[in-house]
Amino acid sequence: MSAQSVPVITIDGPTASGKGTVTQRVADALGWHCLDSGALYRLTALHALTKHLDANATDDIAQLAASLPVVFQGAEIYLEGKEVSQAIRQEQVGNMASQIAANVAIRSALLQRQRDFRRLPGLVADGRDMGTVVFPDAPLKIFLVADVHARAERRAKQLMEKGLSANLSAILSDMQARDLRDTTRSAAPLVAAEHAYTIDSSALTIDEVVDQVLAYWQAIP
Ligand code: C5P
Across residues 198-202, what is the average pLDDT? Predict the structure, then answer.
């Protein structure tokens, strides 16, 4: 069976729109695999930071991305044998990820690795360009948005729940800068794919968003 015949649901949207949780929940409901493509950009960023590379060292970072020594084991992620699932969530790593993600060579180094996640019985993929670039033939595409203030508050709450410090106004301005970079870059900018359904999660619960995505999937003949 060709990879193209494996169904994919793509869920793209800005940071902290709820994509990660919705993706995991939809994948669980369908019994499908899950791809958190942002984790690959974050892993590349963390790897570059540990090698003391600056975000401008794009050639070196593209080489690192092409042979990223990463192993996914359930919720655990190992980079060069070290468990980094929490470390890649740091704001500093997210900011570096967003900067290097604007580079075409780094993006193309990660392309096939993302497509390799497409396995039976199906894949739910979350990111910025899942529906536009990585899986353009996906039968269902979702563009998940939310007001930037609602997203900053969610992120601050998540950090505090993990016992980490959270400065709401710093988070808000970082998020606005990241949104601007993600939507205005020339390489795979964050835009809704053609035929994508846009869901605004600002005033919806996770359950409501998950139910809406599953309803779109079930409505496909
Ligand atoms: O989704 P997450 O915040 O973990 O992604 C980290 C960064 O990686 C984003 O700010 C974005 O710039 C980049 N990214 C991307 N394309 C993807 C996934 C993430 O450019 N498919």
Answer: 95
Site to substitute for ligand 1 among 40, 91, 128, 130, most atoms within 8 A of C-beta: 128
188 within 8 A of 54, measured Cβ to Cβ = no
Answering whether pTM is above 0.85, one says yes
Give the ranges where the chain is alpha helix by DSSP (H). Answer: 19-30, 37-50, 58-66, 91-100, 104-115, 148-161, 168-184, 206-218
Instruction: Examine the pLDDT at 197 and tell me if it is beyond 90.
Output: yes
The alpha carbons of the chain give a radius of gyration, in whole angstroms, of 17
Q: pLDDT tens digits for 38-50?
A: 999 999 999 999 9
- Please, what is the angle between helix 206-218 and helix 19-30, to 10°? 50
Pocket test for ligand 1, best of 77, 98, 135, 191 (most atoms within 8 A of CB): 98
